[in-house]
Amino acid sequence: MLVIHDLQELKNKIYEFKKENKSIGLVPTMGFLHEGHQSLIEKAVASNDVVIVSDFVNPIQFAPNEDLDSYPRNLEHDAKLCEKANATILFNPKSTDMYLDNAKTYVSVSDLTTNLCGKTRPTHFRGVCTVVAKLFNLVCPNRAYFGQKDAQQVAVIKQMVRDLNFDIEIVVCPIVRESDGLAKSSRNKYLNEEERISALVLNKALNLAQDLIQNNTHDIKTILDAMTSLIEKEQNARIDYVKAVNADTIEDIDSLNDNTLFALAVYIGNTRLIDNFIYRKN
Fold first, then answer.
1. DSSP string, the chain
2. What is the rounded average pLDDT for all residues in the chain?
3. pLDDT 10s digits, 97-156
4. pLDDT-derived band at 281, boundaries 50, 70, 90
5. Catalytic: which of 37, 77, 124, 218?
6. Going by C-beta distance under 8 Å and a sequence separation of 6 or more, which residues neighbour residue 103?
7. Which residues, 6+ apart, have CB-to-CB distance to 142 below 8 Å?
8. Annotated catalytic, 124?
9. For the chain: N or C, fewer Cβ within 10 A?
C-alpha cells in the first residue's frame, strides 16, 4: 500500500489506473480510522480493482468554535488499518494543497442542509460538499463509499452527485456499533468513563422508537416525545435535536412513512454525537 501526500503524485497514479481500465473505489475519511471505516474499505475492496482512502481533516467543515485543532489524528494507525483492509492508496494531503490561498469557489447544496445538523452547523455541509467534490475530481472514482451514521451527509452527497452530473455510484454502508450499541465514531475518544456509559442513551432512544413502531405506535410526535423524554433523564446528555425526516429530502414529516429517518444529535458532556435509523416497511 502507498501513502501519498502530493496531489500530482496521486493524479499520476490515477492516470495509470485509468489507462489500465481499473475500477476505482474511494473512501473519504477524516482519519483516526475505526472499524466503521474499515467496513467501508472492505466493501470497496470487494467491488473495485483499486481502493483509495482519503485521510484529511477538512478545515472548512469546522466552525470557529468547533474541534478542528483537537480532532484526533493518527496517520500511522490509519495506515496500518488501511493496509490490513487491503486498500491500495492512503491519500493524506496538506491543507495548503487542497485549499490554495485566496480560494473563491465552494460547493453548496440548498434545502437539504438547513435541517438537522445543518441547523446548528450552518457552514458544515458547504465544507463537506466542497472537499468531496474536490476528491471526486482528483480520484475520478467509479464508486464512493459512505456510512449511514452520517445519513444527512449521504442525502446531501447524493443530491450533489445528481445535480453536478458526477458519474459516480454512491454506496451507503450500515452503521457499525460497539457490542453495547454505541455507534462507532472518532469522537468517542473524547468521552470519559462516565460519559461513555451515558452515550448509550442515543442507541437506547432509537431502540425505543423501533419498539414503539413495532407495537403499532405510528404517530411521529408520540415517538419523538418518548425518545426525548428518555434522553432528558440522562444527566450527562444535552439534546441538539431529535427528529423524524424524509431520508432523501431531509424534510420534517408528521406521519410515519416508508423511508423515515429518525435522527438525533446529543451532547454527552462536551462531545456531540449523532445516530439514526431509517424506517422502511420492508
1. -EEE--HHHHHHHHHHHHHTT--EEEEEE-SS--HHHHHHHHHHHHH-SEEEEEE---GGGS-TTSSTTTS---HHHHHHHHHHTT-SEEE---HHHHS-TT--------STTSSTHHHH-TTHHHHHHHHHHHHHHHH--SEEEEEGGGHHHHHHHHHHHHHTT---EEEEEPPPB-TTSPBP-GGGGG--HHHHHHTHHHHHHHHHHHHHHHTT--BHHHHHHHHHHHHHTSTTEEEEEEEEEETTT--B-SB--TTEEEEEEEEETTEEEEEEEEE---
2. 97
3. 999 999 999 999 999 999 999 999 999 999 999 999 999 999 999 999 999 999 999 999
4. confident
5. 37
6. none
7. 23, 24, 25, 48, 168, 169
8. no
9. C
